[in-house]
Amino acid sequence: MESTLPVNTLAEGDRGEITSFEGGFFFIKKLEGMGLRIGTTITVVARQWMSGPVIVRFENTEVAIGFNMAKRIRVKRV
Amino acid sequence: MDVISSNYPGTTIDIARGFLKREGEQYELIDLPGFYSLEPTCKAEEIAVKLIREGDLIVQVVNATNLERNLNLTLQLIQQRKPMLIALNMFDETKQKGIVIDVAKLEQILDLPVVPTSALTGEGIKELVTRMKEARVSRYRFEDVQRWNEIGKITGQVQSIHPQHHSYFERLQHASVRPITGIPILVVVLFLMFTLIRVIGEGLIEFLLDPFFENMWKPLMTTLSARLSHQSLLHDLLIGDLIGGEIDFGQSFGLLTTGLHVTFGAVLPYVLAFFTLLSVLEDTGYLPRVAVMVDNLMHKVGLHGLSIIPMLLGFGCNVPGTMATRILETRKEKFIVATLIAITVPCMAMQAMLFGLLGTYGVKGVGIVYLTLFVVWLLLGMILKRTVRGRSPELFLEIPPYRRPYFGGLMKKIWMRVRWFLQEAVPFVLVGVLIVNLLYSLGFMQWVSDKVSPLFTLLFGLPGEASGALIIGFLRKDLAVGMLLPLNLTFQQLVVASVMLSMFFPCIATFSVLLKELGIKDLLKLTGIMLLCVVITGSLLHVILSLFTG
Which residues of B touch A61 (CB under 8 A)? Predict the structure, then answer.
């Protein structure tokens, strides 16, 4: 089985395909509203120091995701 | 139709309505806050959804550079079975990004009119309005659970992307948000902003407003003063006291003298400069990146990066700053931000007053005040983080590409914010001047200052009369200059008085907004916290400064 990582552990330039969300209804709806769903491929574009937000790019959008949210989005490397 | 919108969610905080007359029909237009799906995740979105259900016709503004995400909402709206029309906006940007969209095919699939538009250049807007009568209920049917598959199918048929190279522009966008390059850039931007605000503000005062007030208004008022009997009520009201036989715009306290000068001659230039620069910064898309960079710091005070925006607005005027707390999700955040703004963020009126009092002492005096306010901000924020009940949510924000600001929209936005300020300032200043005069003639000011004199001298090192400034500060911060100037305070006293004035009760305009936003219970809590902070900070500062100046 392929291992999955939470988004906050990816480095700048890494690409991953979303495999699962660790959260409830509102969490998933929020992400979906922005266009992030299972199967979306994201690229990490910028990281902050310590536990700052991660900026990811997918399709034609760039989104900043808070650290604790990024922890709950799992991807497999592509 | 006047509306402010920006690249971060929630700035269309008031639902704007307007009217449009076309070909005999009258339409009421309702501008909704941006949202991405009919399953709302916050208050602003709930309101939007409700209004959609009540509306007759829906115009969906779709971002052409982001078709997939926007189609999610399109399909949900189609299920509402209302007449619809799509504005395929930012169409000009698709060319830059190598995206090609087959508009005719999209119209065919969705069974709706699709009009490519570009708000920046104005292209397509006329066509959009003309085609409004073509809005229809789409006959497009699909299974809701298959929605994303449908979206994928649609984009597959209408959109093709030719990937572009990493442009210079993109590298700048990333450099300005990664900490190593981003933070120095932020420091430079802030420094530039501060300098420009000073230059523009002082420029307006020196070359436009002072000449007007000194050379045109003053002689006019002096003539009026001579015409009215010096002891009459009318003279007191309109002209105020003559200081050394002359009208002094700072101290006379007449409606037509201090009343007008304070707003138009002292504060407005800086408010104008501030909101101009902030709006430019907003429209280029820089602010969401700032929110990302300050997110770490904001977490220390129980907030997240986006909270920087209301606080930033608060530096111009606490009223729009407090209103902007609507973009925050939880009650805890709203309370913390509103409290921090009310107590530790000085508005332009307060800052103009600050420089008026301490400007002659150079960076030293003003610097201590700002530093103290920042320290209080941090400490109070950390305490509130732990004591206020509730959730602190995470940042989740779209980062837009840098865009050249659209001049027309920019001007409108600036004008709206300045107009807001004037609407809050002018009536309150005039009322404030009246009340000051009234309180003085009743002897109220003297009574209060006698009562608090021992306390003030002991704790803050200030004469009892300084209490008058605090009382006036409740009405308008900038009027308090006139109260403090005649007291001939020492440098140390001026610093303590300025800090206390800045922290004490936000001006009454802000206070009424706070009542509306927080409710009476939270407002009382805020007031209690504020009084405590003022007394503690004033006393501590007094002690610390005494130690240093010996």
Answer: 66, 69, 398
